[in-house]
Amino acid sequence: MIVQFDKEASSSMHLTQAERDRLDNEAVRDAWLSLTGSLPVLIEQRVARGEVFYSALDLAEYLIGKSDLAGWRINFTTDGGPYSATLLLKNPRSGTPSEIAGSHPTSLTMAFISVISQWAKGER
């Protein structure tokens, strides 16, 4: 399943890099707060340093667990977006990983957050 943030997509196409960075920072903070109920100090520090994608990876590991997260994959062009992100999840029955995918036209972080949100909502 591919998820597109249409509302954000149209407005973010015309933003500066600083504005897109701010939106990514807010998105990862909001994802942590809405999905876990807290924003750990370490994550807040990473976000402050601009390490938002790694903070989203931390969120996936925190929610899914290292034992159930088989890996992840990202795709984008040399010009930037569109970005797509995929979570690879271990399937205990078959041993084969299952996948959840999402996309965003201008943000790798938001593409990855969309995938984590799908997992959290049970859209697997």
Briefly say what this structure is.
The protein is an alpha+beta fold and 124 residues long. The chain contains five helices and three strands; from the N terminus they run H-H-H-H-E-E-E-H. Strand 1 (69-77) and strand 2 form a beta hairpin.
Structure characterization notes:
By secondary structure, the chain is of the alpha+beta class. The protein has one domain (about 5-120): Double Stranded RNA Binding Domain. The chain is about 50% helix and about 20% strand. The chain has 5 helices and 3 strands. It has helices spanning about 5-10, 15-35, 40-50, 50-65, 110-120; strands at about 70-75, 80-90, 100-105. The protein has a 3-stranded antiparallel beta sheet with strand order 1-2-3, covered by helices on one side. The longest helix is centred in the first third of the chain and has 20 residues, at about 15-35. The model is unreliable at about 1-10 (pLDDT under 50).
